[in-house]
Design brief:
2 helices; 3 strands; alpha+beta
Length: 85
């Protein structure tokens, strides 16, 4: 399971690890009111970056997932790597 979140701070010392692990502060907005939500401290190795802009991410959240940017949609047919070059 994944959720759309916005990194609001990086490289925070992980309070649960004495070995110097780092976490990111990630704000997870809620649908349909993105001003509410919650803040998670997520280990950096568990964060997955996307190529979405903040605007695209907010459109997904506010629309309840109805508006999905093209980069998150599966292609209708397999893409030939030779055609993509």
């Amino acid at each position: 399971m994944f959720g759309i979140g916005f990194v609001t701070a990086r490289d925070i010392p992980n309070p649960l690890q004495a070995d110097g692990g780092k976490v990111n502060a990630v704000f997870i907005p809620t649908t349909p009111n993105p001003t509410s939500g919650f803040l998670l401290l997520v280990p950096q190795e568990e964060c997955i970056s996307t190529q979405m802009t903040v605007e695209e991410g907010m459109k997904v959240v506010i629309s309840g997932g109805v508006v999905i940017p093209p980069l998150l949609k599966k292609p209708d047919s397999p893409v030939d790597p030779e055609d993509a070059a």
